[in-house]
Structure formats: C-alpha cells, structure tokens
Amino acid sequence: MSKIILSKEDAEKIYRQIDKKTFKKVAKITITEKKPTIFESKFGGIPYIPNNAEIPKDKNGKDMHFLAQIECEKLKELNDFPNTGLLQFFVCADDTYGLNFKDYMNSNFKILYHKEIDKKVSLDDILNKIKPLDKDFYQIIDGEYKIEFSFENEPMSYSDFRFNKIFVETYNSLFPNNPITKLFDVDDEILEDFMNERHGCGHKISGYPSFVQGDPRYENKNYEKFDTLLFQIDSELKNKKWLAIWGDAGVGNFFINKENLKNCDFNEILYYWDCG
Fold first, then answer.
1. Is the pTM here over 0.85, yes or no?
2. Which of 77, 90, 91, 189 would bridge with 98, disulfide CB 3.0–4.6 Å?
C-alpha cells in the first residue's frame, strides 16, 4: 500500500485538530546565572534538607545526586500540581544515573515533597550532612543555577506514546473515505513537519515529553498509567559549557499518575532517560 500524500492545507487541518484536543499548560524552565538560596527553585547545587532529615541515599548508603528542586508556589498556573512547599529530584550517582532498564519504577531515584519549609534551616546545617560525590562521577548538573518559569499552552509531542492513536482518530474523522490504521500510513513529509514543530524538547514541568530513543510507555502496558509529565530536564549547552547533560546529550523524564499528583503522592514514579 502506497503512503497517503496530503496537501499542506489538509495537513494543517490535522495539526489544528490535534492541538485543540491536546493543549496542556506547561511551565517552561529557563536556567539563569543567578545564585539561588537553599529555599529557591534550582538545578544542582545544595538542596534544602530539613533538620530532621538526610539527603536520600542509594542501596549502598551513598548520597544520591541532586538534580533539582521546585518551589511549588511558582506552579499555581498548573492544574493538579501542589502550590505550596518544595518538590525535589534525586538519582543514584552511578554510571546509569539510577536507570534500571528492566524496571523504570525502581528505587534508584527519589522524589521528595516538603509541604512545609523550615526557614530556620541554614546552609551550614545542610553542608554538614552532605558528602562529596565520587570524583569519577560525571554529574548531570555540574553547578548550581537558579531557574525561572514561564507558562504557555503546549500541544502533544509526536514522541508521546498516545500520539499515534490521536493522529489516526483525527485523520479518519476528517477524511473518512480514505482511512488509515497507523501514523506511518501517511507520507513522511507531513510527519517531518509535525516533528519539527512539536518535538517536546526543553526543561519543563507538565506538558508533553521528548525522547531520543522512544517513549517507554509505548511497549509496556504497566507504564501507561503514568499519564502526566511531572518533570523533564533536557541537555543544554551554553557558551561551550554543558549546564545539563544526560550521557550523549540526551533527556531525562519523570512521570506520575494524574490522580496521585492531585493527592501529592510521589511514591510511584516512572523515571527514564535516553540519549543518541
């Protein structure tokens, strides 16, 4: 069967319908050169740690690698997300950054939610609890950067596991006399245009993900319940310095079930990263 070739006008009809169905508010993240405090949103550096707590540790008792913390009060424009406290992300400081290829819901990473923040905690209090990471460990975030948020509506990215279904449904509703059964029944040119405009790249809270190899939820039904992008850190090169990097310039994602997010339950998370 030859592939279906669409006009630019027909392709735009499909794009507009998909965008209308899938638009989601996203908090885009910008890395700044400002110095954050222990209570502010940041990539890397020194995390907030309450006086009665420690930094998360791996199964061998080693400190995990701190990725980021988010001031939830900055996320009030996002539905279902907490709007108080701090949300923190840690991964194992090993060669795979805690990724378990057999189980992306493993214990090699940690998400912490601090609903209340103790402003009496000092930087010295925290530094006394932190041990230096191994010198040979290549950090994802090598530095400490204050981050800022901007909000916009984002359509579903082409690499989201749900995109094939919604593309087929949208196409068939618009062109019922010439139906398709899968995304790749359509000529590659229309797919290329969509990919260029709806790639899902960048640092973000909510919205839709980007992948280098593919969405892990596509091949495993057990992962489909993780329907919400909690957090994404992309690789970013600025002035010949990597502010963030996953392996060979990849991207890292954390997913959560929408109902768990509403309940501020961060115990069941899907963590994944890939690179070229």
1. yes
2. 91
Return left, alpha or beta for 84; rule: phi > 0 is left, psi -120 to 50 is alpha, else beta. beta
Quick one: which of 212, 198, 186 has its CA closest to 158? 198
Three-state secondary structure of 80-136: CCCCCCEEEEEECCCCCCCCCCCCCCCCCEEEEEECCCCCCCCHHHHHCCCCCCCCC
Task: Give yes or no for a contact between 87 and 66, defined as CB atoms under 8 angstroms apart.
Answer: no
**What average pLDDT does the structure give for the chain?**
94
Count CA atoms closer than 13 A to 119's CA, side-chain side: 1
Tokens (6 digits) for 156: 């579903």
Instruction: Determine the Cα–Cα distance for residues 270 and 257; give it in Å rounded to an integer.
Output: 9
How far apart (Å, rounded) are the C-alpha atoms in residues 11 and 197? 13
**Of 76, 236, 220, the residue nearest 140 (C-alpha):** 236
Tell me the sheet residues that pair with 255.
229, 270
Confidence band for 240, pLDDT divided at 50, 70 and 90:
very high
Residue 150: per-residue pLDDT: 98
Who's near 174: CB < 8 A, 6+ residues apart? 10, 13, 14, 17
Q: Give the pLDDT band (50/70/90) at residue 1.
A: low
Q: Cα separations (Å) of 270 from 19, 100, 193, 210?
A: 26, 11, 30, 15
User: Could you give phi then psi for residue 44, rounded to 5 degrees?
Assistant: 70, -175
What b/e string do you get for 179-215 counting C-beta neighbours within 10 Å, with b at 16 or more?
ebeebebbeeebbeebeeebebbbbbbbbbbbbbeeb
Q: What are the structural domains of the chain?
A: 8-274 (2.30.320.10)
The predicted-structure confidence for 57-101, as pLDDT tens digits, reads as follows 999 999 999 999 999 999 999 999 999 999 999 999 999 999 988
Q: Which residues pair with 85 in a beta bridge?
A: none
